[in-house]
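re: ur question from yesterday

yeah so i grabbed the chain u mentioned. its 243 aa long if i counted rite. heres the sequnce exactly as i have it in my notes:
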Amino acid sequence: AHARLTVKGTIGFALCLIAVAVGIAAQAPRPAPLWPDGRVRLGAPSGGSGYWASPSARTLTELNAKSEVAPFMPWSRSVFLYRQQTKFKDDPVNRCLPPGGPRQFQQPQGVQFVEQREVGRILVLLGGGNRNWRIINTDGRPIGQSADAVPSYYGSSVGKWDGDTLVVDSVGYNERFWMGSNGVPHTEALHLTERFRRPDFDTLSYQVTIDDPRSYTRPWTAGWSLRWVEGDLPEYFCEGDKP
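ran it thru and got these structure tokens back, copy pasting raw so excuse formatting
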């Protein structure tokens, strides 16, 4: 009888171990999809579809011990506070203008990457903002200077890979958009350095360094993550009052 109890106990213990192992495996992150050469894919795997949504932050905040919003200059702080006090009534997004700069990665409708490696570029398609798009050139061209680029909502972007991280430098922004929903201002001197990393299948890590010497006393950094959504971008068109 004692032997039978011992065998039953051993079997029960083994089954518990198997159940725990299955549970851990089910919770483990899925590995990021790869291109045939081993490069991480920012978009969908071959034959699949999907996009990034559910940003972990909806405003720009500086990541430092002081928890400052940004290292404002006096004029940019005044503009920021005015936008807060007027409850963001002048937000360009309310007039169907594109969510330029970092804000494109904080829209509830999501964003999709289409990697066109054969022509050396990545298309960033926006689910919101009247379904605009942005081009990130990855063909090795130089970034250029702000004064040489035609000012636009998404700037002139050049990207290169640093290991599994896509590093994108962008200049040539206009001043018609807000960088975040909390009204952080900028000028045409804005230079963004963005870092995109996909540590696992369902997570996109986004970090941006904001360098605008006309608006801030020094460069500053913000970041958040997005989650993978299977399927196509939902259909959405802005119906606000267009300028």
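noticed a couple things. Helices lie at 2-27, 74-85. also The longest strand covers residues 220-230.
anyway ttyl
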